Amino acid sequence: MKIILFSQNKHKVKEIESIFSPSKEHYVRVYTEFIEPFCVVENGESFKDNAILKLRFLSQKLPKSLSKDFILMSEDSGICVQSLDNQPGIYSSRYANIDDFSDKESILKAKDSSDEANINKLINSLKNKGLESSKATFISCVAVLKNEQILTTHGFLNGKVVTNKSGESGFGYDPIFIPNGYSESLAVLGDVVKDTISHRFKALKLMKILLK
Ligand code: IMP
């Protein structure tokens, strides 16, 4: 199955490629191999809204001939922290640039921030509440356009966020997220473990079933 993936995040692309095409049964190409990179304003209300939004833009921008030969795929993900009212959620990539979560207009104008800035903001938010950890869940929504039909799946990874960073592997909030059943962060556990338990792995596994 030939897939064109919409993502600008090279870590995500690597994860999705290694989860989705180990048997060469699936073949993933990144959209920038065909067209210039472009940004999508992620103004949906959920991971699913944003994944579908990305998918629709991708299908509009790609030459129609390609959409016939390939399945189009997008993904939206983030982390929901229980003690922070499930923030940053769908705003995970721009968390450090958001001052007021009740001001939707300014949230939509906020640009993505660095992983380091996002992690530091999350750590400070926990510390400001006198906490050293909180339950948290990573969520991924994968969306696919196949034969003009949109399919979506979700995956979840439960665990906790902590105020001390550890590990070098992965990206985003990996250095402060410890999955349930483990005592190390995802950034210490590394790709091999992450790619068999992650929210993206679970959403992609379900998508593989839907695409069969
Ligand atoms: P998106 O690219 O708009 O879906 O934003 C995803 C953001 O959520 C990333 O920039 C990270 O901050 C966070 N995120 C999603 N998945 C992961 C993960 O597997 N590990 C760490 N952070 C993640």
What does this protein structure show overall?
By secondary structure, the protein is α/β, with parallel strands linked by helices. It has one domain (2-199, 205-209): Alpha-Beta Complex (Maf protein). It contains 8 helices and 7 strands; from the N terminus they run E-H-E-H-H-E-E-H-H-E-E-E-H-H-H. Helix 1 packs across helix 8. The longest helix has 15 residues, at 47-61. The N and C termini lie close together (9 Å). The relative contact order is 0.16. The model has no long low-confidence stretch (mean pLDDT 94). Inosinic acid binds at residues 9, 42, 76-79, 92-93, 118, 138, 170-174, 198.
Measured by DSSP, the beta-strand proportion falls in 25-35%
Task: Just give the CATH class.
Answer: Alpha Beta
Number of strands: 7
Taking Cα atoms only, what radius of gyration do you get, to the nearest Å? Answer: 17 Å
Structural class: alpha/beta
Q: Main beta sheet, described?
A: 7 strands, mixed
Mean pLDDT: 94
Summarize the entry for a quick read.
By secondary structure, this protein is α/β, with parallel strands linked by helices. 36% of the residues lie in helices and 25% in strands.
